[in-house]
Each structure stands twice: as C-alpha cells, then as structure tokens.
Amino acid sequence: MCHLILLRLSYSNHKILIISIILFFDRHWLFIYPVHGGSQNAWLTNYTENILSKLIPNDEIIVRGVLVEPNFYIDLRINKDNIPFHLKSTQTMMIFNSKYKATWLSEIKLTPNPLVVNTTFMMNILIDQDESFNISFDEHIFFKYEKRESLDSVKQINIYGNITLKSVKIIHSYREKDNSMKTLIIGIAITIVLLILVGMVAFYILRRHCMHSQSNNSSEKYHDVTINSLGSHRSKTTDNSNATQATNSSTIS
Question: What ranges does the record give for the region Disordered, renumbered to this chain (predicted)?
C-alpha cells in the first residue's frame, strides 16, 4: 500500500517548506520543496524535455504515470509566450487551451475527468494530418483538440503537477519509417552475403569433387596403361622364348 503524507512547516504565518513523505511497503521517499510566497505551488513532478525534431503528422507523445492528486499540466512550448498545446487536469474536468503571443485563448472544458487518483494511467497525444491533437487515455479516445498554432517551432514538452511520472516517449513517425527501411536493407544485405557464402561453399565442394574424379580417372588410365605395357612385355617375352626354342630345335635337327 502507498501512503502520501504532506507536512507543511510554517514560520511567522508563512509557509517556508513543504515536506512530502511517500511510504511504499518498507521504503520511503522524502521530498522537500521551498515555497517562495504563499501563492506558488510545489509540484511532485516538474519535468522538461527538449524536442529536437519538429513535430509532424503521425508523431505521437506517450506519457505514463500515477495521479497522486487531480491537478497536473502538460505543455508543448515554443517559448513562454507561445504554447500551442496546454492541458490542465482538475478534480472534475480536463481543460485545453493555447497561449499565443503571451495571451491565453478561450478554454475548452470537458467533464468528467477520465483520470482517477492513485491509479496508473497512459496518455497518448497523436498529431493528426491537419496538426490537430487526438488525445486518448489508456487507449480510449477522449478528445480531439483542433490546431490553433503551427507546431513547426515546438521545442519543449513540460509536465508538472502532483503526479508520479514513469515515462515520457516522443515517437517521430519518419524515424520509424527510416528504421523500417534500414531493417529491410540490412535484411537484404545479410541474405545476399549468405547466398554468396553458400555459393562459395558449393563451388568449393564441386571443385573438390571434380578434382577427385579427375584423379580417379588418371589413376585408372595409368593402371590400364601399366597393364597393357605388362601384357605387351609378356607377349614379347613369350615370342622371344618361342623363337629361341624354334632355333634350338632346328639346330638339333
């Protein structure tokens, strides 16, 4: 079981520290946040990641975490005065907005809030062909937020609020295609190399077989020649012997 204990230390009626103690089984985590002024919030998470490649259609942002308290925010920022995508989660609703030239535009409020406190969630932000945002929670489509400002110059994603953030993943669609093409090329190259190796092995075996066959044929020919030579030699020897016997017979006569 997970327990969250918030202790506020005050001095002269002003909050100076917020201590958060999270107990999980036999372990605990201690967080201390300074408070500069009574109106400033102290969040469990304040995460910022630079977006190195511009966002284009079919790109996707996946956020996984646990909602500790209802309030948290997600911003896609160009700079502090221009925020094309702003999501705010409250206890009762989800609020979407954009900030353009330091001015907030009209809010879009949706109820009820699909997130549940102390529950793990997965949020997907998929950029559509018209650069609008398709938002889903736990693979259930929730809302489509229409484009209000170009995404070409978005440089950061900022996630802050009372959540325990597990992971943030930015998936660029063109990189996935490039990876697929690279995988295909590597597969073709490996196949060609294997075919060449198999061909070389087959050629080597065939050559050895041919050389062995030629060697056997040469041995057989040499054997035949040797036998023929021996036969001829024996015939000549027999003829000479017969001639000698005939000569001796005529001499005796």
Answer: 231-253
